[in-house]
Write a structure and sequence with these properties.
- Pathway: Amino-acid degradation; L-phenylalanine degradation; acetoacetate and fumarate from L-phenylalanine: step 4/6.
- It is an enzyme of class 1 (oxidoreductase).
- By secondary structure, the chain is mainly β.
- It folds into two domains: about 260 residues, Jelly Rolls (Sandwich); about 150 residues, Jelly Rolls, CATH 2.60.120.
- Helices cover about 5% and strands about 35% of the residues.
- It is built from two helices and 31 strands.
- The strands form seven sheets. The chain has a ten-stranded antiparallel β-sheet, with no helix packed on it.
- The longest helix is centred in the C-terminal third of the chain and has 12 residues.
- The protein starts with 9 loop residues before the first strand and ends with a helix.
- The model has no long low-confidence stretch (mean pLDDT about 95).
- The structure holds fe (ii) ion.
Length: about 475
């Protein structure tokens, strides 16, 4: 398949050993490195794990391409003012700060001037650890309004999980094409080169980058063999190549939190055939089979885990990607919104569309919130009053909306950009977020086990009408 006829066909199955060829017979048969690769191609291995990783975890792909990736000019550092090299805090030259405060951001402002592509519109918001020791993660947002042209990007630092919020992403990768729209996600493994085009114009979204391991499907335990994200719904691109050597192509590499660029006279998307299990993929979040309580109580959000990046401690994630999808709420005698809690994990949340059930206002599509390790949070006063007094009939929650969470066992540091209250084009950090809990009243009455808050709240609700 050449560039003139983009191929958005997909191979199905999470983590499978996939194989695809854009020219019939391009894939060597029965071996990876024949003396002569069909059609005069070069063989190149892309390793996602150490050569000696256990078979069940081993990831690699073989790419059969027109020119090997090594044909390029030396790396040169290029400005990267929106990224950080270190999440360390507490020094005069620190790029980040730490705060246990509950934080909430208004929708991240799109660029006020043209010419900002996916790479240069990427802003690091928070993170922990560092890629040089393969430990930690970074959370970015991208705010872009221009296609990447004659260029490609890859991260040596980690695997990217990309969550578009506004605008589709037309992603050309070495492995083929992916079209990813809001309500879908894609994962681009470490090292895979890609270019992002914006068919819908100005675009915004969130990125979770993990510096070690890979995103995996969570264990299902007592749920059984089915449910949550099903493996067959993960889609991998089919091979597509461009045989072009008419331009100077720029490849930008994110390496230890900095950008470096190289140049080459041939198109980097020249892979005619590939096989392996280390490849980019996408997933439609609307295919998530939601499991929840059908009797009583609000269960923990781990039941909504789409993908997880495990740590070395069993059951503890470097980061989970969790969604809060449309679903029926049926629990009886239950406070249905999220309970008040203090979590040993850090919770970064974003909203794709609609409204979120724990907040009456202020948490908007394209914005975000962060509730850090052991920092208390929960429903705001208005939500508590409503959920404590409403009649508990079954209802469909957020039928057209979707919220998500990056939940991590690490403690996040915030970049200076993230802690700015104003940006050109709009507001960012909400200074008064904490006030949403200020209206929570004391209802305790040792002489009245049935409580009096319900009636008071009902009266207040009636008074507002
Ligand atoms: Fe929470």
């Amino acid at each position: 398949m050449t560039a003139d006829t983009k191929n958005y066909s997909y191979l199905s199955g999470f983590g499978n050993q996939h194989a695809s060829e854009a020219l019939q017979g391009a894939l060597p048969v029965g071996q990876n490195t024949p003396q002569k690769v069909p059609y005069g191609l070069y063989a190149e291995q892309l390793s996602g794990t150490a050569f000696t990783a256990p078979r069940a975890e081993n990831q690699r792909s073989w790419l059969y391409r027109i020119k090997p990736s090594v044909c390029h000019t030396p790396f040169q550092q290029t400005p990267s003012p929106n990224l950080v090299r270190s999440f360390a805090t507490g020094r005069a030259d620190s790029e980040c700060e730490s705060t246990p405060n509950q934080l909430r951001w208004s929708p991240f402002p799109l660029p006020t001037h043209g010419g900002v592509d996916f790479v240069h519109g990427m802003h690091t918001l928070a993170g922990a650890g560092q890629p040089s020791v393969r430990n930690g993660l970074a959370i970015h947002v991208y705010l872009a309004n221009q296609d990447m042209h004659a260029s490609a990007f890859y991260s040596s630092d980690g695997e990217f999980l990309i969550v578009p919020q506004q605008g589709r992403l037309d992603i050309q990768t070495e492995f083929g094409h992916l079209m990813v729209e809001p309500n879908e996600i894609c994962v681009i493994p470490r090292g895979v080169r890609y270019a992002v085009r914006l068919p819908d114009g100005p675009s915004r979204g969130y990125i979770l980058e993990v510096f070690d391991r890979h995103f995996e499907l969570p264990e299902l335990g007592p749920i059984g063999a089915n449910g949550l994200a099903n493996a067959r719904d993960f889609l991998y691109p089919t091979a597509a190549y461009e045989d072009k050597d008419d331009l100077e192509y720029t490849i930008i590499n994110k390496y230890q939190g900095q950008l470096f660029s190289i140049h080459q006279p041939h198109c980097p998307f020249d892979v005619v055939a590939w096989h392996g299990n280390f490849a980019p993929y996408k997933y439609d979040l609307r295919r998530f089979c939601t499991v929840n309580a059908v009797s009583f109580d609000h269960l923990d959000p781990s039941i909504f885990t789409v993908l997880t990046a495990r740590s070395s401690t069993p059951g503890v994630a470097i980061a989970d990607f969790v969604i809060f999808p449309p679903r029926w709420m049926v629990a009886e005698n239950t406070f249905r919104p999220p309970y008040y809690h203090r979590n040993c994990m850090s919770e970064f949340m974003g909203l794709i569309s609609g409204v979120y059930d724990a907040k009456a206002e202020g948490f908007l599509p394209g914005g975000a919130s962060l509730h850090s390790t052991m920092s208390a949070h929960g429903p705001d006063a208005a939500t508590f009053a409503k959920a404590s007094t409403e009649d508990l009939k079954p209802f469909k929650l957020r039928p057209d909306g979707l919220a998500f969470m990056f939940e991590t066992s690490l403690m996040l540091s915030l970049t200076k950009w993230a802690l700015q209250k104003d940006q050109p084009g709009g507001k960012m950090l909400q200074a008064n977020y904490y006030e949403c809990w200020g209206g929570l009243k004391k209802y305790f009455d040792p002489k009245n086990r049935d409580g009096r808050w319900g009636e008071e709240s009902k009266a207040e609700q009636a008074g507002k009408k």
